[in-house]
Design goal:
12 strands; Protein AAR2 homolog; alpha+beta; spliceosome; five-stranded antiparallel β-sheet; five-stranded mixed β-sheet; 3 domains; mRNA splicing; 15 helices; Substrate Binding Domain Of DNAk, Chain A, domain 1; Serine Threonine Protein Phosphatase 5, Tetratricopeptide repeat
């Protein structure tokens, strides 16, 4: 592991004196280890990372089979760490779990021992990849330790593949007898799917994202209100903010960044789906755009950096060739240009639109399908004559 960018000597000295250290012992050679936006395959001398700038970081790793066993790469696992100046975190590799065990960090005696031998360890510690620091900060500047801790699983581990178990444990013969039989050919895809055991995330391993309401309208809403709430999702957005980010609404931008990082670096597809849902909610909330200037100025800044990290055709639906992002942002730019929107926000949105049009060649001025019927769900018992 080596830095590909020459670091300013003053910065290097400051990071050497004030930076945090991750001591990672026993990591098998060839394991893919990374911190923030950079990863590498560790060699035989690797024992950790030094000169880490204080703050929030994402440590991630993948187990790799030896070339003799096929060289397959396992699912990525990661966790967010908030490091203070001169912090030392100690972890040892657990070969059974193929994971890092940080329990030694709870022992002051162990940490003191490592601190006393840090000079001897120094040749085995790779420097933090300082060249990615600017990118990492731009992707997480709205993400606090509190928000990250509240969103990641209770287990403390973010895994690319969900750890699932059967909803029904089938411990008894009677339970197994009640399950669909699998000794005959399926007559349809649905039948085949119905025969599969129903699975659920293992307790403590699920992401704790904000829950976006399925119904975008308030209880007892009239058909007209339901239609309005389907066109302008401000009610649903305010519901999410009140329930999950009441004290600090701008933390929703931190959740947007958390989701993006978990997908971009952690390979968590569920996080990508949540990112899309949050983005659609924000971009299609016209009334909120008039009321929450700071939230939307922040959204533009967050998206500017996020969209700089992905290829322009990434969001294209393979089946329909439609671009989720252009249609979502088209609504955003339309609302941002409406009456009652703060002048500074309107101008920022116009600049952002011009930037995206130039960089990605996305057309936000195509005719909107204003005549398309809007299908809405009516509450039970409500009918339209």
């Amino acid at each position: 592991m080596a830095n590909s960018v020459d670091m300013d000597p003053d910065v290097a000295l400051r990071l050497f004196e004030e930076g945090a250290t991750l001591v990672l012992l026993g990591v098998p050679q060839g394991t893919e280890v990374g911190i923030d936006c950079k990863s590498w395959q560790v060699g035989p001398r690797f024992k950790g990372v030094k000169m880490i700038p204080p703050g929030l970081h994402f440590l991630h790793h993948c187990s790799v089979n030896s070339p003799n066993c096929g060289g397959e790469v396992g699912p990525k696992m990661g966790l967010f760490l908030n490091l203070k100046p001169r912090d030392i975190l100690l972890a040892t590799w657990d070969p059974k779990e193929e994971d890092l065990d940080f329990s030694a960090s709870q022992s002051e005696e162990e940490v003191s021992r490592i601190r006393a031998t840090l000079r001897d360890l120094d040749p085995f510690l790779g420097p933090y990849p300082y060249e990615v620091m600017r990118k990492w900060v731009s992707l997480t500047d709205r993400l606090s330790e509190e928000v990250a801790t509240g969103l990641q699983p209770l287990s403390g581990r973010i895994c690319a593949f969900s750890d699932v178990i059967p909803e029904v444990q089938l411990r008894h013969t009677k339970d197994r007898a009640e399950q669909p039989r699998n000794d005959a050919a399926c007559q349809s895809m649905k039948e085949g799917l119905d025969r599969l055991p129903r699975m659920k995330p293992r307790e403590g391993t699920e992401m704790r994202f904000s829950v976006i309401p399925e119904k975008m309208y308030p209880p007892g809403a009239t058909p007209a209100q339901i239609t309005q709430c389907s066109l302008d999702r401000s009610y649903a957005l305010e519901t999410v903010l009140q329930k999950h980010h009441q004290l600090q609404p701008l933390n929703l931008l931190g959740e947007l960044q958390f989701s993006f990082v978990c997908f971009l670096i952690g390979n968590v597809y569920e996080a990508f789906e949540h990112w899309k849902s949050l983005l659609a909610l924000l971009c299609r909330s016209e009334e909120a755009m008039r009321k929450r200037k700071d939230l939307y100025l922040g959204l533009i800044a967050v998206l500017y950096h996020q969209l700089g990290e992905i290829p322009p055709d990434f969001f294209v639906d393979i089946v329909s060739q439609s671009n989720f992002l252009t249609s979502t942002l088209q609504d955003f730019f339309q609302f941002a240009g409406g009456s009652g929107v703060d002048v500074a926000l309107r101008k920022r949105a116009e600049k952002f639109k011009a930037h995206l049009t130039k960089k990605f060649r996305w057309d936000f001025d195509a005719d909107l399908d204003e005549c398309e019927p809007v299908v809405v769900e009516l509450p039970d018992g409500v009918t339209v004559d």
